Amino acid sequence: MNRAFNRKKDKSWMHTPEALAKHFIAYNSKFLGKTEVDQPKGTEVVRDAVRKLKFQRHIKKSEGQKIPKVELQISIYGVKILDPKSKEVQYNCQLHRISFCADDKTDKRIFTFICKDSESNKHLCYVFDSEKCAEEITLTIGQAFDLAYKKFLESGGKDVETRKQIAGLQKRIQDLEVENSELKTQLHVLEEQMMIAQVPPGDGMSSKTPTDIFDMVPFSPVTPLIPLPASNGSAPPPPARSTDMRKDLFGAEPFDPFTCGAADFPPDIQSKLDEMQEGFKMGLTVEGAVFSLDPLDGRC
Q1: Predicted confidence band at 160 (pLDDT cuts at 50, 70, 90)?
Q2: Angle made by CA atoms 47, 49, 54, in degrees to the nearest 5
Q3: Which of 1, 9, 20, 212 is least buried, going by the fewest C-beta atoms within 10 A?
Q4: Is residue 137 within 8 Å of residue 110, measured between CB atoms?
Q5: Region 4-26 average pLDDT
Q6: β-bridge mates for residue 6, sequence order
Q7: What's the average model confidence in pLDDT over 95-123?
Q8: At 65, is the secondary structure helix, strand, or coil?
Q9: Which segments of the protein form a coiled coil according to its record (predicted)?
Q10: Under 8 Å between Cβ of 97 and 116
């Protein structure tokens, strides 16, 4: 590899300045990968990196893995490495961080460049395989450097600082987009968990007393209590009558002649009731004979 960036005043470039300054030049290539290097530039540095990545790619190829294809977008702002189908940016190598670029004269398909990573500050060597455009891609990156340097001189260095700020903002936007995607995934998982844990309406027991179509509580007879025998063997006492059961439909207590006292009726009515009770008792047995107060009975 013997091509590096050499700015020559008489050098003729392949593309118009407007194409690289206002737009970009796109190339398709195979991406062998990237690896860390000790130095920011040098032919031997990139040669060792190419040898290392070729060996790794040969092992992956024997395992059935194909070399991934990428799209390179070259401009005065840097080199973007994208997925050729989805156009998703995989790497964004800013031009001011690229320190070396070269193509391999022994293998005209291979070209590389070294870029300093913005997060780890490590120098990474990117290696590509292009069957027909390796030298052209290298020259295009060199032309982008030449135009960027001229623009730097014209702006007095302010343009570089502006590009750095823009690049920082773009990186921040990418980080926020990744974080937003992760939060959406977590929110979706929480919603699924809540739907699984939620009890559907109507399955639980309602605390409200059910009513019929007329909004009335349906009649439910109370199960009678079965008296249990006392511990001493005697008959259990009769269950106590509830005060609510002693009233009829109209709220009045029902008539019971055996429980009513003398003060419950006027004297004339009470005396007649007493006579009826005495006659009833006398009519039961007289000298061993049984009498009936019912005239239809026929017994006397």
Answers
A1: low
A2: 95
A3: 9
A4: no
A5: 73
A6: none
A7: 90
A8: coil
A9: 159-193
A10: yes
